[in-house]
Amino acid sequence: VGPKKEVAECKEKFASSADPTVSQTFMLDRVFNPEGKSLTPMRGFKYSSWSPLGCDANGRCLLAALTLDNRLTIHANLNRLQWVQLVDLTELYGERLFEAGYKLCKADAPCGELGDFPEFQRRHSMQAPVRMEWSGICTTQQVKHNNECRDVGSVLLAVLFENGNIAVWQFQLPFLGKESITSCNTIESGISSPSVLSWWEYEHSNRKMSGLIVGSAYGPVKILPVNLKAVKGYFTLRQPVVLWQEMDQLPVHSIKCIPLYHPYQKCSCSLVVAARGPYVFWCLLLISKAGLNVHNSHVTGLHSLPIVSMTADKQNGTVYTCSSDGKVRQLIPIFTDVALKFEHQLIKLSEVFGSVRTHGIAVSPCGAYLAVITTEGMANGLHPVNKNYQVQFVTLKTFEEAAAQLLESSVQNLFRQVDLTDLVRWKILKDKHIPQFLQEALDKKIESCGSTYFWRFKLFLLRILYQSMQKAPSEATWKPSHEDAKILISDSPGMGSTEDDQEEGTSKQASKQSLCDTGKGVDFDDTAEDSLHQSGDTGGREPMEEKLLEIQAQIEAVEMHLTREHMKRVLGEVYLHTWITENTSIPTRGVCDFLMSDDGYDDRTARVLIGHILKKMNKQTFPEHCSLCKEILPFTDRKQAVCSNGHIWLRCFLTYQSCQSLVYRRCLLHDSIARHPTPEDPEWIKRLLQGPCTFCDSPVF
């Protein structure tokens, strides 16, 4: 808010002011006085917001975090289980305001002196964030040095401040830090005491519109236009649209915007829902030839206490609300000729978890789970002494619904539907078989379209089935083993069962039971394991081993199919981007020979492509060489390369090059490894290295 020395002097002056309206306001306001002296320290987070998928260097989400002392930072998960702060937006915005003299535009009147308490308050309120929200990913055009235009992805972060201003940051993707910030524009909302913020994104006739929905602690809700410069196909409103203007003192707690399709009007529409006290305010926005139609109303009779959290499933428009008494309401929108109505039903968490207090809810991306933050409720009319916060998961879909959604998915990416695959995984682990209807439907999909997505889905099912067939370990694998070198007397032949032996047996059984209980709801079939032990001598183990070998053979066949399909893609890139007899770092000849080595593999597309590539190579082989002994590395295995001297190098699953360095990347599920891009790599190889895992769709770290 000003030079450090001057700010310190002003703080001392206001704290010791004879006017109690100044001194008490200053001492009790934690924005001015974050250290607080005798007050509780400002440690923790006020709010956090996740960006859409595909914003960081690994194609995952960025996290915007607002701390209790009003510092807004952006973090990224660059390495596995390691979060890094990329930029401090509070510091950057403060520098911008300082350079502009704490004015939003040049026409504004000059600001007062920092020693004046109203000016001191104004400078703080224009930099104290209340909420921040990410927009969807949009496309901008960037002009290169040779006047060519290329599309560059960008994302917007809107930050709402205490004085009602909104700073809209534009970031170029992938976001790497301060250098990825494209612009920052400030909008004046005109709303006093703002409480919540949300993006309004609407698509009409292939034209995308955007705006910002702002709610106030006094009740009003309105949409503000956001002018996005140089964004392809984006439009905004001409002027602000007031959705609710009554100052009824019902604070707006949460706002969600859900894109829907109107079955009667035969067009897309936008449903805005906001939690206001114990009520849900809804507003249906529809663009027609007459202009923007706005229908709004309130849903009453949901909760007896104020709504503390609200979430929405954007797949089907279902809204979930909860109050602190452990009651969750499910609201399903049903369209009518004019607007819509809501059908709502009560979900009593007390029937599932017992007496609990709820503090927040969130629905998973594909609507498979509802996550609920709970603490213990009242017992015998008394509140608990200590609060133990827990995150509980409630399934919202059945296994059949999750499987059907995965089969008909337009996303065709297992990683982006991980909540649905988790439901399927749990069912197969529990029943130890893949349901017949799912197997048949998946085989039909593979025969009809042959998309690699369905092959990856099949691989996922086979791997889980293989895992379910394996015997559960008797002890937790993460525990250190305390093996004693001494031999127990009871182990010597001829000795009967002793009390110690019985105790040891019960302790082993207890540890096994505890492992099964903590296996994320997986009920391992102990009877199957017992039958394995009992029939060890009679050959009963052989059918299980044969079954495991059969599943293993199916897994290897599916992996080989996916490998061949990706090899074809890599060879296609090589053919499109190389000249005659050009040496690329990709072992092209080795990949061609590997594809043609199997007599049972007869793919006409692969044969034609390989023929064209071999003509281009003109009898050149360009083999890879071992960096240790300079011997040739033959391409005999898709996973590793072994030279004649026995040096083993792992192969990159994205380009099939040997990773001859100490540092490489690995996919999230540890399926495969990939090398890092190097400065000398051409753009098309760098693009190949940005791809996800070819087996599980996971990003690569």
UniProtKB/TrEMBL annotation:
InterPro entries assigned: DUF5921, GTF3C4, TFIIIC_delta_N, TFIIIC_Znf, WD40_repeat_dom_sf
Residue ranges constituting the Transcription factor IIIC 90kDa subunit N-terminal domain according to the UniProt record: 6-397
Stretches for region Disordered: 488-543
Single GO MF descriptor: histone acetyltransferase activity
One Pfam family matching this protein: DUF5921
Comp. bias (Polar residues): 507-516
TM annotation in the entry: none
Residue span(s) of domain Transcription factor IIIC putative zinc-finger: 618-668
A cellular component term, taken from the record's GO annotations: transcription factor TFIIIC complex
UniProt GO BP: transcription initiation at RNA polymerase III promoter
DUF5921 domain span: 398-475
Record-given protein name: TF3C4 factor
Organism from which the protein derives: Cephalopterus ornatus
High-level lineage: Eukaryota, Metazoa, Chordata, Craniata, Vertebrata
